[in-house]
Write a structure and sequence with these properties.
231 residues, alpha+beta, Glutaredoxin, Glutathione S-transferase Yfyf (Class Pi), Chain A, domain 2, four-stranded mixed sheet, 4 strands, globular, binds glutathione
Length: 231
């Protein structure tokens, strides 16, 4: 059994989608990041960066339990465990890893900051809003050009790279983006949205999802998530 430590945000949806795609048995352990669960010692043992998602696979390599944090690493782990959605070798493997890294190093951090400065920051900082919104637009453009020539980010086949990017693109409005300039991203988005496993993955803690919206955060949750000078 795999235990998915999660709260319903795009980084956790990547993993719930992959678990559903692979039909792996799993249960969800709630990490309410608005209440500070990410700082509890029992979570920090498997998620030392105090960020979810993290997984504990009770049946890891050689049958021993293993934990993995960082959503990109979790996707690679699950792909290698199941032999699915990441080619074992060759150019197609590196194409999938390229676009997975693109998400982890670019799309996620930039769009996260676009969302933060547009909707959550306690003060309006025009330079930051412009900087991250423009950079998000540039990254959507990079994906659009790629998807003009291929159905999926890694090429012909759906992969963990698509699962990493899709939940972020789903909330594009928070990044100050709309579909009009990115028709190939929109077509790709709709193709993936139609998958049954994606719909099941998006049901992760759906009742709690409204609380993750920045406009619905309480002052106490803001202090936990965005407290200045926290360690
Ligand atoms: N690079 C990490 C990012 C994870 C991340 O930023 N998680 C956020 C929610 S989306 C979190 O747990 N935040 C809690 C905090 O900052 O205290 C990953 O992809 O797993």
């Amino acid at each position: 059994m795999i235990v998915l430590h999660a709260w319903p945000t795009p980084n956790a949806h990547k993993v719930s989608i992959m678990l559903e795609e692979c039909a792996l048995p799993y249960r969800v352990q709630v990490v309410d990041i608005t209440a500070g669960d990410q700082f509890k010692p029992e979570f920090l043992k498997i998620g030392p960066n105090n960020r979810m998602p993290a997984i504990l696979d009770e049946d890891g390599p050689e049958g021993a339990p293993v934990s993995v944090f960082e959503s990109g690493a979790i996707l690679v782990y699950l792909a290698e465990k199941t032999g699915r959605f990441l080619p074992a070798s060759g150019a197609a493997r590196y194409a999938a890893l390229e676009w997975l890294m693109f998400q982890m190093a670019n799309l996620g951090p930039v769009c996260g900051n676009a969302h933060h400065f547009r909707d959550a920051a306690p003060e309006r900082v025009p330079y930051a809003i412009q900087r991250f919104t423009d950079e998000a637009a540039r990254l959507y453009g990079v994906m659009d050009r790629r998807l003009a020539g291929a159905p999926y980010l890694a090429g012909d086949d759906y992969s963990i790279a698509d699962m990493a990017c899709w939940p972020w693109v789903r909330v594009h409005r928070y990044h100050g983006q709309d579909w009009a300039p990115f028709p190939h991203v929109k077509a790709w988005f709709d193709r993936i949205a139609a998958r049954d496993a994606v719909q099941r993955g998006m049901a992760l803690l759906a009742d709690e999802r409204a609380r993750t919206r920045s406009e619905a955060l309480t002052e106490a949750a803001r202090a936990i998530l965005f407290g200045q000078g926290r360690r």
